[in-house]
Amino acid sequence: MRRLSESFDELRFGFIVVDPSKRGKGYGKRMLQLGLKFAFEIYGAKKVSLSVFENNESAYFCYKSVGFDDVILDKTETYYVLGEEWKCKELMIENR
């Protein structure tokens, strides 16, 4: 988790990784819930954002299941690795 500015109003989750043998058991969802609790209750964040590669559907649906919403951007963030194109989706959740 990192700040995007000097304030703690908006925080950003970085890499969220679950061991392949543990996927599908709710660990990722619980990890996100605890991270969001920390961000909102300890840091007092107003919103938390993250991005996910478009082809990582299981992670995308995990983020959606804890309340993250899609953010529409003017330009899609795209990376090129070993001749492959990797596009990202941006998501955000606001403290309610």
Automatic annotation (TrEMBL):
CDD domains: NAT_SF. SUPFAM superfamilies: Acyl-CoA N-acyltransferases (Nat). One of its GO terms (molecular function) is acyltransferase activity, transferring groups other than amino-acyl groups. It comes from Dialister invisus DSM 15470. Pfam families: Acetyltransf_1. This is Acetyltransferase, GNAT family. Signal peptide: none annotated. InterPro entries: Acyl_CoA_acyltransferase (IPR016181), GNAT_dom (IPR000182). Residues 1-87 form the N-acetyltransferase domain. The lineage of its organism: Bacteria, Bacillati, Bacillota, Negativicutes, Veillonellales. It comes from the Bacteria.
